[in-house]
Amino acid sequence: MTSIDLALAGVSLGAITALSGIGLLVTYRTNGVLNLAQGGIATLVAYVFREMVVEWNLPIWLAAVISLAVVSPGIGLLLERLVFRPLARRRASAAESLVASLGVLVLSLGITAGIWGLGSRSDAPSIFPNSSVQLFGDTRIGADALAELVMVIVFAGVIGVIAARTAFGRQIRAVVDARQLAELSGVPADKVAAAGWAAGTTMAGLTGILLAPRFQLTPYGLTLLVLETFAVVVAARLSSMTVAVLTALGIAILQSELKQFTLHGDAGQILTVLQSNLFIVALLVLLLAVPKLRELGSGDSGATTSFSSRDAPPSGRVSGVRLRRDYLGKLGGGALLLAPLTFAPSDLRSAFMVPALALIFLSMVIVTGYSGQLSLGAAGFAGLGALLSLKLANGDLFGLPAMPGIASMFVGALLVAPIGLITGYPAIRRRGLTLALTTFAVGAVVSRFVFEQPTFATGLYLDPLTLFGWELSEKAFYVFELICLGIGLLVVRNLHQGRLGRALLALRDHSEGAAAVGVDVRNLKLLAFTVSSVIAGLGGTLLVHSSYSFSADDFAPLQSLLWFTAVVVFGADSAAGAIVAAAFMVTIDVLAPAGSSTLAIGILALALGWMPGGLASAVRGMLRLLAQYLADSFVDPNQRAPRPVPVRISAVGHLPATTGITGITGLPGIGSTLRAARAGHYARWPLSGNQDGLPAGAPRLTPFGAGLVGMVQQYAATQTAGARRRQATDPAGAPRPTLPRPAGPTPTGAGAEAHPAEGGRA
Amino acid sequence: MSRHVLQVVGLVRRYGGLTAVDHVDLVAPPGMITGLIGPNGAGKSTLFSLLTGVEQPDEGKVVLGSTDITRMRPDIRSRRGLVQTFQVPSLFPTLTVADNLLVGAENRRRDYAGGLLGLSAQGQGRISHSAERVLERLGLAPKGPVTQIVEEVLDSLGLSDVRDTIAGTLPTGALRLVEFARALCARPDILLLDEPASGLDSEETAKLSQLLRRTAAGGVGIVIVDHDVDLVFSVVDQVYAMVGGRVVASGDPETVRNDPTVRSVYLAQAPLAAAGHSREAH
Ligand SMILES: Nc1ncnc2c1ncn2[C@@H]1O[C@H](COP(=O)(O)OP(=O)(O)OP(=O)(O)O)[C@@H](O)[C@H]1O
Ligand SMILES: [Mg+2]
User: Fold this and answer.
1) Partner-chain contact B161 A695, CB within 8 Å
2) Over the stretch A45-73, which tens digit does the pLDDT of each residue have?
3) How many Å lie between the centroid of ligand 2 and the Cα of residue A91?
4) CB atoms within 10 A of CB A599
5) Is B145 an interface residue toward A (CB < 8 Å)?
6) Of A129-133, B181-185, B196-200, which has the strongest mean pLDDT?
7) Which 176-215 residues of chain B touch chain A by CB within 8 A?
8) What's the CA-to-centroid distance between B20 and ligand 1, angstroms?
9) Quick one: DSSP state of residue A497?
10) Atom of ligand 1 nearest to the CA of B39
């Protein structure tokens, strides 16, 4: 084939990618959400289309109309109404939108896999006839490519005109800039958002239907293909449709052109992989080349705090009751983990997966829950750990002699550390969604270039593990897994404690603030990534040993997304949550048809919108309420000392957790503070209801200190007064309160007045 | 330990065609309060971010003591003694007040890996956490210098009563105080305050100025940017006035107050001496 023929062969894929990119851009530019679920939706629609044509024998045109004019936009409208509108209403952070769209992705995958299974189908119908058109001489172009190209031009043109020339376009820009402002000036923001979603999902459906006949139709495979098209929107910096279209065509044509070369040896192998994986490589390269995609939401500080499911560990003395309860909880958990030892062998074998997955989930708790980095590459680390340890055990790595199984597992996991460290480097300057995409791309590239390559991943033997010459029985292996999990928990505990724990939490809460007081942000991020990768690697080896085989599918890039969602659902900063999540997924997959756990996680992820902080937080909150209720029924509530209500308890109710509302001002900490202040939650502030301002037994303040406290207290009083007044007049509340400045003494600040505020004057 | 002086030499920062900071020279000695005033867009905030390392200058250098810190990362500058507070209070909302301060106090050291192995950098010796906890329960916990500093600062700012309150639940006024306390715990040589009085009323502002004087008397150099000229002139030892990215006047408050350029450009409305200059910040 000549260069021109190859180029024309690439046009079709390029055009489809461009369509996908246009869909992503439309959703992003109308809603500010980068729809990670694009791939899942595309796959679902492709399956629906195939079902109608192949199983129900509908004519292709009818099936296409139903899929593209009813099903696809319907999905978009539903998503907008049920998932993303509530998020936009409470100005959820970018991280929350990310989790929501991951939830949609996982849910749509679960639905597809649940209905049609995970197997591949090669009978996906094509909407275009399999003919070609003569261009000139012998050069022909497929009718499909031509039609797709026309579609790209029409859609891009129409959308471009709408955006630039019409009133609707202006409304779109207004909504994206400031949704509430736009609404106040009469723009129907919800309609604009809904239109954007409907258009985006329609393009997704179209992408799916067009892609399916070109490849095998599998839920995971097609989804991943669409995710790879994110390269073009990254190149377009999430704004320029023209750049997206040109990049799509460019990469596809280049990929096609690569087919005319053949190389030998290692280079040849790389070339072969590149010939079908240029998009994912381009995604990684682009993300690495563009250090700050400002459009992808700057600022990680505050963003991931919304995953926080509980308060920081206490630095002071832990009360005896609390300690006892902690120990009880741990004992109970330990007993549950030991329970499989009494199971029948087949059930025990299923339980093997639990500690392995739990370790992988723990690795995500470290990076996301503790240090606030969004990382979607866990499967890559886990797979590398597994592969390296297998190679060590087989004596197949760097000419090293074969190692005993158990040693190879630990060494293999440790060998992942440098890779984790390297992956951590992009994290120093990237944050939020950019980092999430970067880590995803790393995982995908590792999967394509390593796990799926026969040279690396075949011919490996999995010998039974031995310890001092004894072959480990199945029970012993499970115990060994538990020991590994224990090691992981120990590391996590140390990470969460003391100076290191505080520094990590500070980094998660407010990275600029942390740097400003000398927290070594860079090294901490690297440390978190490195430790996390080793733990994931260990989990990966265990996973391979529990399923008795290394399969690239177990460590496919989409697994990372699924796992990440599961971790967030069960409380991203909860080690216990990680274990529960693992047990949950394994149990469901054992009891129900394959893919059910995906479905369940997807549903739970969408429910997150109503319970920020994850299941762990909800359960904790419920227990607390229950305890409170029990206490109240035995003790007269009025007799007990008034207890300050932590704001966070509201996580189970209607109010989001304190830190989940950073969206109010877009500034970390501020929104939460303001809302807390307005809701009167600073009841703990010592002086606000207390005449002399000091609890009995408290150390006496220096006069200066007393003066300062007075000042703060008075401030608090004016705040409540202001907040009350505002509530009376303006229920919505101003985003940033202006301070009321009463000329005389504050009307409600009785406590403040009584306090010798001038005492501090030296 | 002698405190460092902050020196800024010929600092330039351009945004496209606009020179936001234009050959600025500035000296902030320890123990003194340096004010920085100027109308909106004068380049004050940009200068601050050049000092703290959030932005990189196009020309010029920033010297702390005898070290050129122009290219250093923000956290390294902070460990060397150049600590800032933010215009929007930036506490760690999920940590308690005491932990917020501890983070500030602890991070002159960087050996985080020790913590991973269960070693604690708290206290003088390195003991494991479990050991520390046992000691603590016996009432024998070694009070390291770090904990001491935190307790002292909490005490002297009257924050002891909220030491175990989650910072995210505090009202804004308290947040400013806690952030100031956190900066103090980092043992700064030079403290950069970005509009510390915004959001405070006149009485609170008076308290703030006392606090600033006390801090400076303890040997800390302070650089303060604020739109409240009354506050600035009442508290500072020297003032720099910026207009259009340039320093147009500097020296003791009296000189700057009477400088014709400052009067014409910045304080056109009224002579500064007359009180009641309203704050522009809100
Ligand atoms: N990131 C940026 N990109 C482009 N221009 C900028 C940027 N940051 C600041 N500027 C410009 O630099 C000039 C100085 O801004 P700066 O924020 O430093 O002023 P300021 O003295 O702090 O003003 P204010 O009192 O309003 O806070 C302004 O004209 C501003 O528009
Ligand atoms: Mg400014």
Assistant:
1) yes
2) 999 999 999 999 999 999 999 999 999 99
3) 26
4) 21
5) no
6) B181-185
7) 177, 179, 182-183, 185-186, 199-201, 203-204, 207, 210-211, 214
8) 6
9) S
10) 25
CA dihedral of residues B107, B111, B113, B115 (deg, nearest 10): -60
Tens of pLDDT, residue by residue over A559-607, are: 999 999 888 888 787 888 888 889 888 888 888 777 788 888 888 888 7
Instruction: Say yes or no to pLDDT of A757 above 70.
Output: no
**Tokens 């500058």, residue?**
B77
Per-residue tokens: A367 = 């990076």
For the entire predicted model, the pTM comes to 0.77
Instruction: Tell me which of B169, B176, B200, B205 to substitute to probe the interface with A (most A C-beta atoms closer than 10 Å).
Output: B169
Tokens standing for A94?
């970018």
Q: Are A716 and B173 within 8 A, CB to CB? A: yes
Percent helix, strand and coil across chain A, each to the nearest 5? 70, 0, 25
Give the residue from A193, A207, A195 showing the smallest Cα distance to A39: A207
What ipTM describes this predicted complex?
Answer: 0.80
The predicted-structure confidence for B24-48, as pLDDT tens digits, reads as follows 999 999 889 999 988 888 888 899 8
State the Cα–Cα distance between residues A96 and A304, nearest whole angstrom.
Answer: 8
Instruction: Report H helices in A394-431.
Output: 405-415, 417-429
Q: Which of A372, A315, A313 is nearest to B106 (CA)?
A: A315
Question: In the prediction, which pLDDT does A108 show?
Answer: 92
**Which helix (H) or strand (E) covers residue A471, if one does?**
strand A470-471
Of B75, B98, B168, the CB nearest to A672: B168
Helix (H), strand (E), coil (C) string for chain B: CCCCCEEEEEEEEEECCEEEEEEEEEEECCCCEEEEECCCCCCHHHHHHHHHCCCCCCEEEEEECCEECCCCCHHHHHHHCEEEECCCCCCCCCCEHHHHHHHHHHCCCCCHHHHHCCECCCCCCCCEHHHHHHHHHCCCCCCCHHHHHHHHHHHHCCCHHHCCCEHHHCCHHHHHHHHHHHHHHCCCCEEEEECCCCCCCHHHHHHHHHHHHHHHHCCCEEEEECCCHHHHHHHCCEEEEEECCEEEEEECHHHHHHCHHHHHHHCCCCCCCCCCCCCCCC
pLDDT exceeds cutoff 90 at A536: yes
If you write DSSP's letter for every residue of A660-680 in order, what string do you get?
GGGGGTSSTTHHHHHHHHHTT
Query: How long a stretch of residues is chain A?
Result: 762
- Residue identified by tokens 């399923």 is A547
Does residue A703 belong to the interface with chain B, where contact is any CB pair within 8 Å? no
How would residue B268 be classed by pLDDT, with cut points 50, 70 and 90?
low
Rounded Cα–Cα distance for residues A569 and A99 (Å):
9
3-class DSSP state of A467: strand
Does B276 have pLDDT greater than 70? no
Gyration radius from chain A CA atoms: 28
Contact A725, A675 (CB under 8 A): no
Separation of CA A512 from chain center: 22
- Mean pLDDT, to the nearest integer, of A517-528? 86
> Which residues does A616 contact at the CB level (< 8 Å), separation at least 6?
A309, A310, A570, A571, A574, A576, A577, A580
Q: List, chain by chain if needed, residues with CB within 6 Å of any ligand 1 atom.
A: B 15, 18, 20, 38, 40-46
**Distance (Å, rounded) from C-alpha A363 to C-alpha A367?**
7
Contacts (Cβ under 8 Å, ≥6 apart) of A613: A306, A307, A308, A309, A310, A571, A648, A651, A657, A660
d(CA A628, CA A33): 39
Upper half-sphere CA count for residue A433 (Cβ side, 13 Å): 26
B73 and chain A: CB distance < 8 Å anywhere? yes
Cα torsion angle, B73, B74, B76, B81, sign: positive
Per-residue model confidence as pLDDT tens digits over A428-465 = 777 777 888 888 999 999 998 888 887 777 767 777 77
